[in-house]
Every structure is written in C-alpha cells, then in structure tokens.
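tool_call: predict_structure(chain=1)
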Amino acid sequence: MSQDYNKPAFKKLLEKLQEESWQLELLISGFAIFGLVSAYDPLSIASIEAENNGVLHEFIIAIVGLYSCVILLFNLLLHVLLRGLWIGALGLRYVSGDIDYSELNYSEKFTKYLKKRVGSFDRYIARLENYCSIIFAVSFLLIFYVLALTFTILTIVLTAEYVISNENLPGWLSKALGIPLMIFIVFGMFLTFFDFITQGWLKKKKWISQLYFPFYWLFSFITLSFLYRPIVYNFLDNKFGKRLSLILFPIFLLIIMLSSLNNNFSNYFNERSRATSYITSDNNYLDSIDENAELFVKDAAIQSKIITNNYINIFIKLSESIEDNIFNFNKGLKPDKDSRGITSDVVVGYNNGKNDWGNNRKRLDSIKQDYVKTFNELYDIKIDSLAFKSDFVVNKNKLGFETYIPTKNLTPGKHILHVNYKTLKEKDTLNKRLKSILFWYYPD
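tool_result:
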C-alpha cells in the first residue's frame, strides 16, 4: 500500500480528484464556517473566564482555539467568496464564451492595455481556481503555525518552571541543565523563525545549514512541522505560494490590530475603566453576572446594584493570592505538598487493610474550620464608615466566600461597600482594600 502512489492508476485518481475537489472544498467550508461561528462565543467566554480565574492552561487552550477560529473564519469566508466568483465566471463563460475585445469597440490604446492586463477569460478562470485551491489549503496550514508558536512558548515556560526553578533538583544541577537548554531553545526559536520568514535561507547556505540542522531537527518535533512539512515545501516551490507566504504574516498582524481598535467617547472613562467608589461595573453585581455569560466576578460582588432586601449578600472569589495570604498569617495551614494546579480524579492504588480514614476526615474538617476562621480575621466589611463583623462561609459551587449582612441601619440612597484585608510586607502588617462597590439602597 505504501508504494501505491507510484502506480499510474493512483496518479489518474489524484488527477480526477483534483478536478472535482472544488465540490469538497465548498462542502467542508460550509460546515466549517457554521461550526466556527457557533464556537466563537463559547471560546471567547471560556478565555475570559480562564483569564479572570487565573487558570493558565485553560486560558492558553481557549485563546489558541479562539485565534484559530478567527483565522479559519477569515480564510474560509474568503475562499467561499472567491469560489462563488469562480462558479459565476464558469456560468458566464458557458453563456458568453471568451472576451471579444473587438465587440467592445474601445480605442486602440485601451484595447491593447486590456488585452495585456486582463487577457483571456479562460486565464481569469484558471487564476481564480488557483487562488481558491491555495487559500483553502493554507487555511488549515495556518492553524498548525498557531500551534507551533504555542508549543514553542510552552517549551520555554516548562523549561523555566520544571528545570531552572525546580526545587527538587540541586541548585547547581538545575542551573547547569536549565540555562544551556533555555539558551538553545530560545536561540533555535529565533533561527527557525528567521528561516521561516526568509523561506529557507538558512537551508541554502552550506556551512550555515550544518549548524542549523540540529535546531531544525529539534523544532520539527516542538512545532509538529513533521506533520505538515510536505505542504509547506509544496507552497514554496510555487510562485503564487511564495508570494502568499510572504504576505500572510503582515495580513494577520493587520487583522489583529484592526480587531483591537476601539472608539473612545471620553478622555477619562471607557469600558476598561476599573470599578471604584465613583465607577460601577456589572462584574460587581451577581444578578448582572447571571444574565450575561461574558461577565465574571472580579475579586468580590454583591447581589444587585439596587438593594431592596433587608440584607446584602457579599461574595469574595477564592484565588491563589488569597490562600497564600492566609498561609502567611497561619503557617500551620500550609500543607507539606501544594496540590493546587492541574489534578486528576483518578486514584492509583487502594489500601484494603486497616486505615485511619475517620481520623483523617476529622483532622481535615478541623483544618478547614481554622482556614475559614483565619479568613474572617483577615477580611472585614464596611459600608461607608459602618463596620460589620466578618462571618464568611465557603461557597463550594462558586468556590469563594459568602456572607449576609443586615441593611436595617442603612439610610435610603447611595452607599459604598468596602472589602478590606490584612497582608504582610516583610514583617509589617498592612491594611489594604480589595474592592469598593457602589450600590443604592431603596427598601420595598
């Protein structure tokens, strides 16, 4: 089977498929565009949520998916547009044939110019066919380029995290292994990128190619280029493919820049302004968050902008920085092994013998209660200048702390709720403000 591509029958099959590939291209493009449009909003929401929650691996996956979605949408829509133009040109050729310049009855100057620049209608159809096929192929190739960039950055981050900064390795060993490896990877990244944008210049020079080959071999695995390398080289041996490869990078930089443009209506306020004692944000109100899937709690929130109940529900989102701050004040809560980050629910091994599961559970409950107690000692609530005793409990579904405070002592009108906390700087205890939330109290 591996030698079938050399047989004449296989080559005839390929030629036949090439002639009919436009039907598959349109079919795939149509389904892909529908799927990508449907996936865009969920990916955008997932990236915002991951960034807001500080979950790096989820943010990377979501943002790579989002950029891949945008790239594919742009290319496939362009492909469908050009393929539609190509089908229209074919239909027109069936009705009208080639361009008859004598029938146009233009002056000699324009007739010569149009014959040279426009040429025959068949050439126009052939060029459209080439453009459509190449744009369709390059659409999916660009996704591999995005993955290549992502995996390269991940390789650098993982080297820094698990080799250079690895506390389980002796300092001299982590530096001796990590620093040369990091230099090799970063230097190889720049060489590979330079070779990419120059369309293989480093491979053309005899002595330079000898030095570049180890980097090329390593990065073929890091960037997964061994999967799509034949397509790349097939592009580069085609004149139009070379031109397209040169303009793709600037085009997508331009698209990213255009998508980042905003229209500001004020010199001082915009949608990116932080919530303060004089600026409201829908992220501070739980009812707005429930209604809008793109909104998430940032640090803290209350139930509504206008309070009509005889209580205020306050929610503080749990984060690694909050837990680190608790550990700083209560060293006994810090575990020997930090289990934060990516974990698995799969349990390896099982102890059939006698165990102290009941005692461990009681001990864990005691630690959790101490954790909540320490949190309440560090965090306090004020409305205007009126202080309230902290009595937060853990909300396991939203993963944060919540409490309810009465509104009986509040006068109708505007108020500001302050969430304050204590933190350590060197050996000094500092009082800081986590959040200020504007609200209006108008009881029913």
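agent: Residues 15-258 form one domain. Proceeding to next step.
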